[in-house]
Amino acid sequence: MDMAAHPARPDGQASAQRARWSLLAQAAAEHNAFYAPDMLDAALDHLDEGSVRLIEAEADGVLIGLLPVIVAPRHGRLPIGCVTNWMHDHCFFGAPLIRRGAELAAYRSFLAQLDAAPWATGFLHLQGIDAAGANAAAIEAVCVEQRRGWREVHRYDRAMLRSDLDAERYWETHVRAKKRKELRRLQKRLADLGAVEQRLLSDASELEAWCTAFLTLEASGWKGREGTALGCHPQDSAFFRAACAAAFDAGRLHMLRLDLDGRAIAMLVNFRHGPGAFSFKIAIDEALGRFSPGVLIEIANLHAVQGDPQIAWMDSCAAADHPMIDSLWAERRTIVQYRIALRGAGAARWQRGAAFAIANAAEAAARHLKGQG
């Protein structure tokens, strides 16, 4: 079922839809906290400007797939419109929710609906996909089955935490001895300034204050100066508060803070989904930068994650070659983008085929020029 751009929903309809999404999220072949109902609802309510379409795949009346998409006016540097999975500024993983065991059926439905949609222009561009995940496997299988054109157009590795070692063993195994010594020295120097305490949010009555503290702390640093902090824009801060509240109610919020004399000097927010978790945002007091509070709270996070039997892995959601987290976490997750041809009838078929061919040709030319350089 293709829903037209996200509409205002009566309370009863919204509740029923959320229940369907929740059942799908629980049975997902690939977990994605950013498309789980609490975060997706918060994003649609506060970040969607009416352009997001929700592509739902069904089988025998059961929801087997959910793909939020937008029509983008450009594809990278090319002035070619295309359909792309919706990844707003605070979404760091783009894998659609697909029911375990129904992966191929879900993608057959997604593509059939897009082929038939009069609004779908160009091709399907899927970003933020795990190269080793269920979505990647289903995309390849269905495209081969349907003899549908598709290409991987970009990939990079980012840090991931996935280990059976406890925190101390992991720390000793994967972090250089010289770095461990320096960080212990910083911990001792920080303790000389006052009482240092690490806390994990567990009391609902503290949630609002913690969210306020995070927004204030993030806005006090370079993100605030550049206008990219969550607190710089009302819709972003509203999304953050709503997502945290909904995730806390669902038992999926993992929020840490490092305090000095009762004042937060570093905070970190993670969102859980299934057996995994996604590192969302970090904020630090830059006035205490000489003590590396961001690294110190990541050490606290390592202990919290490795000490929690319900968290099997955590995706850093960091950029490629991130100097801080790459030095602490040894595992990697390969993130890819795909360009998938769309079909149709008449002028739509011609336009989509031409857009796919032009994008592929432009990419090949760019690679050739880069190789010559």
Polypeptide structure, described:
With 373 residues, the chain is of the alpha+beta class. The chain folds into two domains: 195 residues, Aminopeptidase (3-Layer(aba) Sandwich), CATH 3.40.630; 149 residues, 3-Layer(aba) Sandwich (Aminopeptidase). 40% of the residues lie in helices and 24% in strands. Strands 1, 2, 3, 4, 5, 6, 7, 8, 9, 10, 11, 12 and 13 form a 13-stranded mixed sheet that branches. A hairpin with a 2-residue loop joins strand 10 and strand 11. Helix 3 packs across helix 4. The chain starts with a strand and ends with a helix.
Summary of the model, kept short:
The chain has 373 residues and is of the alpha+beta class. The chain has helices at residues 11-26, 37-46, 103-116, 134-145, 167-174, 177-191, 207-219, 222-226, 234-249, 293-306, 346-372; strands at 2-3, 53-59, 62-72, 82-85, 97-98, 124-130, 150-161, 196-200, 253-260, 263-273, 276-284, 313-315, 331-340. A hairpin with a 2-residue loop joins strand 10 (263-273) and strand 11.
Helices and strands in order:
Blueprint: E1 2-3, H1 11-26, H2 37-46, E2 53-59, E3 62-72, E4 82-85, E5 97-98, H3 103-116, E6 124-130, H4 134-145, E7 150-161, H5 167-174, H6 177-191, E8 196-200, H7 207-219, H8 222-226, H9 234-249, E9 253-260, E10 263-273, E11 276-284, H10 293-306, E12 313-315, E13 331-340, H11 346-372
Helix pairs in contact: 2-9, 3-4, 7-9
Biggest beta sheet attributes: 13 strands, mixed
Q: Helix-strand pattern, N to C?
A: EHHEEEEHEHEHHEHHHEEEHEEH
User: Domains counted in the coordinates: how many?
Assistant: 2
- Annotated CATH topology of the largest domain: Aminopeptidase
The total beta strand count reads: 13
- Per DSSP, the total helix count is 11
Strand proportion, as a percent range, falls in 15-25%
Q: By helix and strand content, what is the structural category?
A: alpha+beta
Q: What best-fitting shape do the alpha-carbon axes yield?
A: globular
